[in-house]
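Researcher: Here's my situation. A collaborator sent me these components and asked whether they could plausibly form a single complex. I don't have experimental data yet, so a predicted model of the whole assembly would be a useful starting point for our discussion.
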Amino acid sequence: MAAPTQPLSINLATVREQWTLGEAVEACGRHGIGAVDPWRDQVAKFGLAESARAIKDHGMRVTGYCRGGMFPGATPAERQAAIDDNKRAIDEAATLGAECLVLVAGGLPKGSRDLREARKMVADGLAAILPHARASKVPLATEPLHPMYAGDRCCVNTLKQALDLCDALGDGTGVVVDAYHVWWDPDLAAQVARAGSRILAYHVCDWLVPTRDMLLDRGMMGDGVVDLPYLRNLVEKAGYRGAIEVEIFSAENWWKKPGDEVLRTCIERYRTVC
Ligand code: ZN
């Protein structure tokens, strides 16, 4: 398969242990990478205005802003706090010129076993922030996460579920297709096709066998078992022309390597594996 035509983007979590936001943006520019996706804590640490300036100075596209969501809460006050915080995330995304706000739904509230109720809280939370997102021209990109996270992190676990939410909510909503979270889904081809123009971002890394940590042991593309050319072909066939965004949480491997080596490897694997 030929090298991708979609541009490479670096999700800045990939180099979070090596660099500040400013250093990471500068390094991406140095390596000829034209797009990034920063995380809220990185932006908070570096400063919102400073982050926006660094991104603009380097002519970077911002293919997403990570992340909003985390809607379920044990009390109405907790759920309202999440809604307020998501509105702030929308404002930050607009300031940064981000193409979408990435949303991780949230898991079960503390002490709860009611997954159906948690999922309803997600739908309610999305509906509550959507008018602000529309007014700010920041699309809401719901990212289904692998079901192993349903308890603590994300109770939206399949593309079908995320697209059902989008169907109910309408304009200004879409999905993130992240290879790490959806590669196992027997319904993948049909759901990617169904997503069509609602694919707002495409994230890649690889699923390592064995995986040693549920959160922080993601692999570099090509080092695991995900058929990335197949998935890229699916999103292309669905009409996606956005960036291929590398997002790797890797406490014991890639976060311990020099940032320049990580970026060089991302570029090489993007060309040869994605
Ligand atoms: Zn992702």
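Model: Some features of this prediction you could bring to your collaborator: The first strand starts at residue 8 and ends at 11. The radius of gyration is 17 Å.
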